[in-house]
Amino acid sequence: MQVELGYDRVGSRLRHIGHLGITYDRAGSRPVSVGGFALVYDMVGNRLRGVGTDQIEYDKLGSRPVRFGDLGMEYDRLGSRLVRIGQIGIDYDRAGSRVRRIGGLTVDYDRMGSRPRYLRTDEQTQLEEHMLVIAFLVLVAFNPDD
Question: What is the dihedral of CA 98, 25, 17, 72, to 10 degrees?
Answer without folding.
Answer: 60
